[in-house]
Specification:
The structure is a homodimer of 236-residue chains. Chain A has 236 residues and is an alpha/beta fold. Chain A folds into two domains: 66 residues, Ribosomal Protein L25, Chain P (Beta Barrel); 161 residues, Alpha/beta knot (3-Layer(aba) Sandwich), CATH 3.40.1280. Chain A contains six helices and twelve strands. Chains A, B: This is Ribosomal RNA small subunit methyltransferase E.
């Protein structure tokens, strides 16, 4: 963790926080922290800055924090992602959060296995846990907004048009399409399919109902967890 | 697997192959293949094309193959990568292979934990296994060249200058450096550090001995498995 992320409940005074649990363990085992050490800290949803460790034992850590820097800007991106398999979902959530995606929509698709929707990793608390790990990795304090859409057609027809309005709408899909644009200046709505890709009906509906144009990233088929950072790094 | 990758030993005639083991299992369990099915195939190190399943049972599969297409071009890239932790190494090898990196050098760095060098995943056969998975994913037949350099300084001083000669030499490193260039036209040598990054001495030696200029990818700190596809997608 490259940033010690603090939540409201950690504050025991205006500039004083008290930690236990996972973050305390990390301070001991990974940072091998000692009283007096200075660490990068951030307030979830708020500012970042420096914390000074004023007390540390097996039960608790106390820090005096000084928060004066804004978090990095979010990518102006709504990512529409066909639900990946559970193990990949965890890593993709961390990546999405670390790379600064503003909004993530996990959506069904014909090639998403039905069993994927049963995973406990889709529970709100489990999603939040992975997003927090991504923020700690990348040094950010602002969680992406995540929503879940179990039905593709009503989402794309009824809600995606408003989400995508005024943005550059793109569907990542291998095939005879224009190359994914580079270094765009405007906000983007990007749809990335499941393993095996979107089916033609889905590509068409994304285009017709919500204006998302198919773009490709070359002839190599990438896993979702590789395609996500590759497409994001190319777009922004 | 998006490509059934065939090795010399699989061929029982000029256009006839016989498979067992992992690939047979995959044909049964994932493809649910049946006699007569047509599959994308490739010959390791050679051409790609189509295979027709002419026999299939619990013990073997036989295919008639027709190979007439070249594999996708490699990225003109030598990637110098500080050895990642073993679990991440496996995934990064797959990514490197899937994205078409021509040459990979796994190198030591001050912040690489010594224990990482003990992993069985560094054995030649284990590396090859992950690279093959990457080729099968991306539909490629040509393995990247992989070499292992356990001592940073002699590698950078004595061998890297020749590897990097005539290429655009870059070190990915967070900090007050120019942004990583986009869509370059020439071959690239790119050094990516370990978790925690290169130390200043290493960044300097890469620059002084081998001409690799530090470049950054924004203020967010990415995991190696995210930074690799992000940097590659931006460069090429």
């Amino acid at each position: 963790m490259n940033l010690l992320l603090l939540e409201d409940a950690d504050f025991v005074g205006g500039e004083r926080v008290r930690l236990s649990g996972r973050r305390l363990k990390h301070l001991h085992e990974v940072h091998r922290a000692e009283t007096g050490d200075r660490l990068r800290v951030g307030h979830l949803g708020g500012l970042m800055g420096e914390g000074r460790l004023i007390a540390l034992d097996a039960e608790h850590a106390e820090l005096h924090v000084s928060l004066d820097q804004p978090p990095p800007a979010k990518l102006p991106l709504t990512l529409i992602l066909a639900l990946p398999r559970p193990k990949m979902l965890k890593r993709v959530l961390q990546t999405v959060s670390a790379m600064g995606v503003a909004r993530l929509v996990l959506v069904n698709s014909y090639r998403v296995e039905k069993s994927f929707w049963q995973t406990p990793f889709l529970e709100a608390e489990a999603i939040r846990e992975q997003l927090i790990l991504g923020l700690e990795q990348a040094r950010d304090t602002v969680l992406p907004e995540v929503s879940i859409e179990k039905r593709f057609k009503p989402f794309v027809e009824d809600r995606l048009p408003a989400l995508a309005a005024g943005t550059l709408g793109l569907t990542g899909h291998p095939g005879d399409y224009p190359a994914c644009p580079r270094a765009v200046e405007q906000p983007v709505t990007l749809a990335i399919g499941p393993e095996g890709g979107w089916i033609p009906y889905e590509v068409e509906l994304l285009r017709e109902a919500a204006g998302l144009q198919p773009v490709q990233l070359g002839e190599r088929i990438l896993r979702v967890e590789t395609a996500v950072p590759a497409l994001l790094a190319r777009l922004f």
